[in-house]
Amino acid sequence: xxxxxxxxxxxxxxxxxxxxxxxxxxxxxxxxxxxxxxxxxxxxxxxxxxxxxxxxxxxxxxxxxxxxxxxxxxxxxxxxxxxxxxxxxxxxxxxxxxxxxxxxxxxxxxxxxxxxxxxxxxxxxxxxxxxxxxxxxxxxxxxxxxxxxxxxxxxxxxxxxxxxxxxxxxxxxxxxxxxxxxxxxxxxxxxxxxxxxxxxxxxxxxxxxxxxxxxxxxxxxxxxxxxxxxxxxxxxxxxxxxxxxxxxxxxxxxxxxxxxxxxxxxxxxxxxxxxxxxxxx
Length: 281
Prior knowledge:
Blueprint: E1 4-5, H1 24-35, H2 51-61, E2 65-69, E3 71-72, E4 77-78, H3 80-87, E5 93-98, H4 101-104, H5 106-117, E6 125-127, H6 144-153, E7 157-160, H7 174-182, E8 188-191, H8 198-207, E9 211-214, H9 224-231, H10 250-258, H11 264-278
Parallel strand pairs: 1-2, 2-5, 5-6, 6-7, 7-8, 8-9
Antiparallel strand pairs: 3-4
Helix pairs in contact: 5-6
């Protein structure tokens, strides 16, 4: 079965992912691995401290494609050119860019979207409103010109929100419903599945077929049964696989998804078919 990992980044990309052994960030990456159920070596991600090691990890895990996601927040910037540099020349890698219209300004953010998805060939744009300064909800009107341009270009929007959102009041999926209704042709992918607000984001996706859930490593926390039940019924075409590597082993995550209770026909959609459609592969 072909498998596409929607959230997979190498340790060498940034200290946040464990780029510097012995650093506080490296130890935090090990801690998070333990927290989300990594079995065995909690520093397994050290293999991806080099580009060759990252590619070998992807191959050995059995992935068909791995999606390297950029980020643009006041506290962390993974530039779109860097994402392009990592994925360029490697057909097994796909890049998703990122913009922050608060930091860039509206015009520059739109121009960067056009450059990242046009010239650089990145397959989507990530925005993280709850990590901004100040934090915002995704339906804040400052983002609407971005959503409008993405809808015009038929480029998917990815929102990331979960328990690491600095102020948990901004890990609220209700704003996603407002955006999905206002931009019905905009395809929206939700990294971390707004965990632990599981029932609420499932309700949003029930109402809005343009919302796609990617709970990644949080599938294995309390709430898994609800995610799986939703995917086995009305969300079969709106649920996607992500490992959250380097914070969880890729192969273990594949095996754990396969054992989570998805129907066989649904698992094929979760592992690849939905991603192929969302990213127009």
